[in-house]
Structures are given as structure tokens and as C-alpha cells.
Amino acid sequence: MNPLRCAVLQLLKSSQMQHGLRFGDYTRYRRYCTARLRRLYKSLKFTHGRGKYTKKAITAPTVTEVRFLHVVLYTAERAWSHAMEKRQLPDGPNARQRTYLIGRLRKAVKWAALFSELCAIKGDSRTSLEAEAYASYMRGNLLFEQDQNWDVALKSFKNARAVYEELGKYGDLENQVLCRERVEELEPSIRYCLHKIGESKIQTSELMHIGEMEGPALDLFKAKLEAVMDEARSQQAASMTEFHWLGHKFPISNAKTRVSILKAQDLEKDLHGPTGDSLPAEKRLVIFDKIFAAYHEARSCIRNDLVTAGNSENMKDDLSGLDKAIGAVLGQRTIERNQLLVTIAKSKLLKSRDDKIEKVTKPEELVRLYDLLLQNTADLSDLVSSGRDRNSEELAFAEECALKSLVLRAERCFYLAKSYSSAGKRTEAYALYCRAGSLASDTLKKLQSLTTCDQAMMKELKMLYDDSRSNSCIEHATGIMEEEKAPEILSKKISTISLTGADKKQEKYLTEKLDTYESAVGDSNTKGLPRIEAFPPAFQAIPRNPIVLDLVYNTMEFPSLENRMKKEKKGFIGRLWR
């Protein structure tokens, strides 16, 4: 019999991506493995009895075709996906669930080892190597989860990496790409094992950057890494006793609140650090979402503490102040996120003329974003101004919010003018550009009167003022040109008015719109040629004489009229012939 061929990595990758693991849905993938095994058992006629379960072992003599190898492989995958499903529980697995998780991983290792043995006997050389790498990877996952024998786990991951590196040099292009991806997915686990053994000088905080890769092989590593980071934050939170905000100090007594605040602050360092500006916009948005989740978790803990605070007024005041401070920080980060969205939208607006494939940003979308920013700034200003005794830092922050609101109003007015300009409404666009320039000029004067002013904001306002002036001149000139050409255009459009026209989608005729003031030819937004009336006119129903059906005639009995009939007189000869 010829050696069996099974593309293990390619088969697993396609199954995982098509059945849930593209989105991290291990429940869906486990159900797929169960259904796939049921179909394989039935097609191979390898079922385990009808009423009573009778175990049938898969041994080397049993394997007569490649589908028997698929049975062993999908059994290992089902156990592994079940373990990963337990790992992804919202609050993490408890002690009992973790014991079950490790049991499923042990079963996955057992079936992966059997798969490797069968492939070594029945498969070709490449299938045998892929099966060996798969078994080593499963063995490393079990030891990785057990937090023990890091040297053995490291050896298993290195064996798998060496096999995939070697296999990546041969075969078709798709298989080479898959092998290289698997090598990259194994690298973080290897570095983490080296870190635990002590052979690597990498810091725990640097491991977060290693886990930014995507792939099913990294989910266990990410879960372990998150647990390590939570443990490190818990140790660091022991020394964190206060939260500082605008000159106020709020004590933090709850350990969960400290850990959540520390998590948010670590993420803020990634955003505002030296490498923050080099991060792509999509990654920065993801970090913002994680910051929001951490601060919301902290506020949830604070409000639970407020419920259980009892009658202690001092504790309630501290918790209320801390909740207000966290809310203000959340407001600031929300403004920063929306400003990032504005930056992305502006870049797409500028590229819209050159790049026609990418979705074009409309000025109306920027107006909506500026509305959100104005609302966020107003909410933040109200929150800061809600206290009775405000210090100098709070007053300065409120003034900064007022200035930022003026800047946002000017920019919103500018893009609102752009939206009117794109709609062909020159008068409204000219007025709004003038208003945007006036707002920018007034805000510039206020900034220059301050002792300390933001140079970046001043530069932005000057650009906005110049753009407003130039665009207002353009709109003015365009409006005059259109006014000069208006009679000629109007006469051309009137000459195109037809009795019926060829446009069958016209909703109403001109004779039907006599009661409404709506321009048919003067408006630049009018679509289609206007039509006066439908010709030839449509048929109309008219009344006619009624139709009388005499149904009684055939059933009536009329009187005899023979006596009234004129009798015929006949002569002598006529009487003879009668």
C-alpha cells in the first residue's frame, strides 16, 4: 500500500478559519469537530455499536485510508478547542474548571501522540514530520498551561518550530506561507518560556508587544500573559494608595479599583509615550477601547463601594470625588479618541481626489464628529465645574475647555460650509466661511492675550482662518460667475422643457405642482428634465346609459287578442279553395 498523504497544517488552518477561529469562537469550532467526527465515523462504517457503546481502537492495521488519520486528528482538535473554550470564560476558569481544562489538554496531547505514531507508520515523510510538529505543539501547550517544566515546554516548542522552518523551504507557495506563519506564532511562546527559565533578559512589560500578533496558536499565550500582567499590577497596586487629579488626592481602598486604574494608566503610557505617535490609527483605537473598559470597570467597583459604604460621610465623599475624577479622565480620553477619528476623516477627505478606491469622507461626517466633540467638551466642562470650592487648576481646566470649544465651533462651521459648497449653495457657503473666519479670528485674539498659549492650537487656528478667507473668496467668485450665467442657463433649461419628455421616472408633472413653490429649472439639484403634462392624455372613465335586461318576458302570459284582430274577407272562389 502506498504511504498516506495528509496536509496537516493546511487542513487545520482551513477548518479553523472557516468554522469560528477567525473570530476566536472556540465553541463553534468544537461543535464543528464533533459533527465532522460523526460524519467520518458514519462514512467509514466505524461506529461504536448501536444501543450499547463498544469502544473501537484505531491502530496501525486499522488505518487503511487517510480518513482514519482525520478521525484521530479531529479528536485531538476537539479536546484542544474545548480546553480553549474554558480558558476564554469571562472571569477566567475557577479551580474546578481549570482542572477540567488541563484534563482536556491531556486528552489532546494523548490523541496528538497517537496521530504522530500512526503517521510515522502509515504516512509519507512530510505527513510524519507535520504530525510530529503537531504533537510537540500540543505537548508544549499542556506544560505551558500547567506552569511547570518550562524547559520541557521550551524543547517541545523548539522542536515544532524547527520542523515548520524546515517544511517552509519546500512544497507549494501556500504551504510555505502557512509554515512561516506558524513559526511566527510559536516565537512568543518560546520567548516566554525563556523568560520563565531565566535565560532571557526581556522584561514582563515588553512581553505585551510580543503578544500583539494574531492567530489561534497565540490565544493560550495571550491568556497566560494577561494573567501575568494582572499579577504584576496587583503587586504594584499595593503601593498605590491615592489617585491624583487637578490638585486633588483621592484615596483608593479597593484592590480591584487599583488594578483597573493601573491597567488603564499602563495603556495610556503606550498612547502618550515616545512610540505612541508611530502606532497606526487602528491600533490606537483598539488601545482606546481597552482604556475605556478598564476605567468603566474601576467606576463599577467604586459605585459598588458607595452602596456598601453605610453612613460614613467621609468615605462617601472620597468615593464620590474619585468617581468624578475617573469620569473626567474618561471624558478626556473620549475627546482624544474623537480627535483621532477627525484626523482619520480629514486624511481621507484630502485623499479622496487621488484615491478613488478608498471610501471618500464627506464633509457632513466631519460635522457630525465635531458635534460629538462639542458635546464631549461641554459635558467635561460641566463635570469639572460642578464642585463648590474649585481650586486654581480646575479653573484653568475649565478655561481650557471653553477655548477648545471655540476652536471646535470654528472648525465645525468650516466643514459645514464645505458641505453647503458641495451641494451648490453658494450664498450659504459664503456666509458660513465668513462666520468660520470670524470665530477663528476671535479665538486667536483670546489665545494671544493669555500668558501661556498652545502654539499648535494657534498654528491650527491660523491655517483655519486662512482657509476660511480663501474659500469665502472662491465661493464669492463662483457665485458671481453663476449669477452671470444664470439667464443663459435658465433659458437653456426652459428650452428643454417638453410636453412629455423621455424620462419615465418623473414623479410629478408641472401642472400637478402649481400649489407648491418649487423650481423646475432654476435649482441646480433638479434631476431630470421637467415635463408639463402627460400627452396623449390617459383614458378616463365616463358614464353611459344603463343596460336593461328584460328577464320577465319569457315567463309572462299575455291575454288573447284574436277578437280584436281584423278579419280577412274572401270571395266565392276563395271559399271554394278553402
What do you see in this structure?
- The structure is a single chain.
- The chain is mainly alpha-helical and 578 residues long.
- Helix content is 65%, strand content 1%.
- The protein contains 17 helices and 2 strands.
- Strands 1-2 form a two-stranded antiparallel ribbon.
- A hairpin with a 2-residue loop joins β1 (242-245) and β2 (248-251).
- The termini are far apart.
- The model is unreliable at 204-211 (pLDDT under 50).
Can you write the helix and strand succession as a string? HHHHHHHHHEEHHHHHHHH
Nearest-angstrom radius of gyration?
Answer: 41 Å
Mean pLDDT across every amino acid position? 81
Instruction: Count all strands and give the number.
Output: 2
Question: How much helical structure, as a percent, in the residues?
Answer: 55-70%
Class inferred from helices and paired strands:
mainly alpha
What best-fitting shape do the alpha-carbon axes yield?
flat
Total helices: the number is: 17
**Main β-sheet, in a few words?**
2 strands, antiparallel
pLDDT below 50 for ≥5 consecutive residues: which ranges?
204-211
For the biggest β-sheet, the strand order reads 1-2
Report the span from N to C terminus.
124 Å
Strand content: under 5%
